[in-house]
Specification:
The protein is of the alpha/beta class. It has 7 helices and 10 strands. Helix 1 runs parallel beside helix 6.
Length: about 210
């Protein structure tokens, strides 16, 4: 598994909303812990980053697109693509150094047409941070895709009377709970408030990776 691995999310939007901010902070921290690089590519010159991302040490910003950054050697770049015929596997760590995710304004189909080799992460949609987390687990920890512990469509408890189902697949932690970005970075008065904030941030944004 030669060289440092790089995880790239295409970010074409001049804004970076609260949920993307939380996702990117989670990805940056986990990549730094794994001695990997995390980069936002295709960033607009007028990109406005919230302060937590501006001071985030594990995040690189690239104004060029993937096709320009990795023009040569292109064959070392893997596009995480729900339409790919082959699923990601640990052996791909020997063949690829860079792993690209389509981002909010999904460029996956465009990059597919430009000839990047694709791999898929299974049949169920994931949030962007989950997709990067799963890819890193498969590639750097050499865990087969079907051996990663998942929880699908988890039920989030709002209070003792209310709950809601999240519409994605997540990695499952040691306690059996879905791994999600830290909503605690936003001020809330109590646990109920944190859950409502999570739902407010996540559910209206149907982005992610199949």
């Amino acid at each position: 598994m030669p060289g440092q691995k790089t995880y790239v999310v295409e970010h074409l939007d001049p804004e970076c909303g609260p949920w993307s901010t939380l996702e990117y902070l989670a990805i940056a921290k986990e990549c730094a812990d794994a001695r990997a690089r995390f980069c936002l590519s295709s960033a607009p010159r007028d990109l406005h980053l919230p302060e937590p991302l501006r001071i985030c040490k594990g995040l690189d910003i690239e104004y060029r697109g993937v096709e320009d950054i990795y023009r040569d050697p292109k064959h070392r770049v893997c596009l995480l693509d729900p339409a790919a015929k082959e699923e990601l596997s640990p052996k791909d760590g020997d063949d690829f150094d860079v792993f690209v995710f389509g981002g909010i304004l999904d460029r996956t189909s465009e990059l597919r047409k430009k000839g990047f080799t694709g791999r898929r992460l299974g049949p169920i949609q994931m949030t962007t941070d989950t997709a990067v987390r799963v890819t890193r687990t498969v590639i750097q920890q050499q865990t087969p895709l079907d051996a990663v512990p998942y929880v699908d469509y988890p039920e989030i408890r709002i209070d003792e009377h209310e709950s809601t189902e999240m519409p994605f697949r997540y990695v499952k932690d040691a306690e059996g709970k879905p791994v999600m970005p830290e909503v605690s970075r936003f001020p809330c008065t109590d646990e109920r408030g944190k859950v409502f904030l999570l739902l407010l941030l996540l559910i209206p944004q149907p982005k992610g990776h199949d």
